[in-house]
Amino acid sequence: MEKIMKYYITFITLIISLSAFAQVPSPGDPQSTPIIVSNATIHIGNGEVIENGALAFRDGKIERVGTAAELESMNSNGYEVISVEGQHIYPGFILPNTTVGLKEIGAVRATVDDAEQGTLNPNVRAIISYNTDSEIIPTLRFNGILLAQATPQGGMVPGTSSVMQLDAWNWADAVVQPDDAMHINWPGRFRREFDFSTFTVKRVKNENYDEQRRMLEELFADATAYHQVNDPQELNLKLEALGGLFDGSKALHIHADEARQIIEAIRFAEDRNVQRIVLVGGTDALLVKDFLKARSIPVIVSNTHVLPNHPDDPVNLPYSLPARLQEAGLTVGLGYERGMNASARNLPFLAGTAVAHGAMDKEAALQLITQGNAQILGIGDRYGTLEEGKSATLFVSEGDALDMRTNKVTQAFVDGRQITLPALQQRLYEKYKAKYEGDLPLVQESEKRDVGNE
Question: Quick one: DSSP state of residue 228?
Answer without folding.
Answer: T
